[in-house]
Amino acid sequence: MNKNRSIAICIVFLLLSLLVSASVAQEDYLSAKDALKYVGQKKTVCGDVVSVTYAMRSRGQPTFLNLDEPYPNQVFTVVIWGSDRVKFKNPPEVFFKGKRICITGIIDTIHSVENHKS
User: Fold this and answer.
1) How far apart, in whole angstroms, are the C-alpha atoms of residue 66 and residue 76?
2) Over the stretch 12-61, which tens digit does the pLDDT of each residue have?
3) What is the CATH number of the domain that holds 49?
4) Is the residue at 23 inside a domain?
5) 8 in a domain, yes or no?
6) DSSP code of 118?
7) CA 71 to centroid of chain Cα atoms
8) Is the pTM of this model over 0.85?
């Protein structure tokens, strides 16, 4: 087998491996609306950040990222506690608004609303 053919086969195999990996990885992601089925489990939830609130005067200074529907009809809410804000280069309420995100963590409920707890 010549060198060019070997390289072409390796590239095709690599691309197929990436496609298979991507499709397997996709199955591990949950939509925001499906997250409630997995309370107490560590999962990856993906959705569009459509509204955000930084409650700096509230206990724990939480930042709320509401996925897929704005507050008060949010489908899933990601909570970033004030003590974790230093981990972000830009304020989360500015940086994430309007973006599609995927977040991994233990799914929890607060007041019967789906939530993510780091």
Assistant:
1) 6
2) 444 444 444 444 455 578 898 998 899 889 999 999 999 999 999 999 99
3) 2.40.50.140
4) no
5) no
6) -
7) 18
8) no
